[in-house]
Amino acid sequence: MRKLFRSGRLVAAILAATVAVVAVAGAALATGFATDSRAKKVRIRCPRQVRTGRKVTCRLFGRLPRGPAGPRGQKGAKGNRGPAGKNGKDGKDGVSGYEVVSQTFKEVFVVNSGGQRGLSAVQTVQCPGKKRVIGGGSDLGTNDAQNGQQRQVTVSLSGPNGNGTGWSVQLFNNSISNDTSIDLRIFAVCADT
Asked: What pLDDT, in 10s, does the model give residues 167-184?
């Protein structure tokens, strides 16, 4: 009897916990929840022996039925607008007014390279107006009668002139004894830049 009296507090705690679980389960059933026959049972487990003056901790096993969903919360305040992004740099102007200009220089004289430098005078094709040269080239095969000179002469210089307004070509004579003359056609690729 004494032992039962000492554990009276334990019995009271177990009864209080059981009443609370039953009350929650009853409320859930009353509101229409947990009526499924597969719903799990809730069990309470407490220690078998409790010493006087000690705190009792009981454990709840199982799940209580889920309650009804609460009301939806208010919409949050709109955030401040972020700072404007930086403007990018303007791109450089492109190329327009593409045009290929060509000119044939007849009988360009090229001195021999034996005792001389073997170079012709520089010949240039100019771009029209304010256009700038963006490419160019040359052709030594414009006159079929000059086949021998074509084998003897090579291009020494082919590139834009000093101020970029035309394409320049200079020839070299490989012969160490014979001066020669040859027709030279120059192309200049021009554009507004």
From this structure: 999 999 999 999 999 999
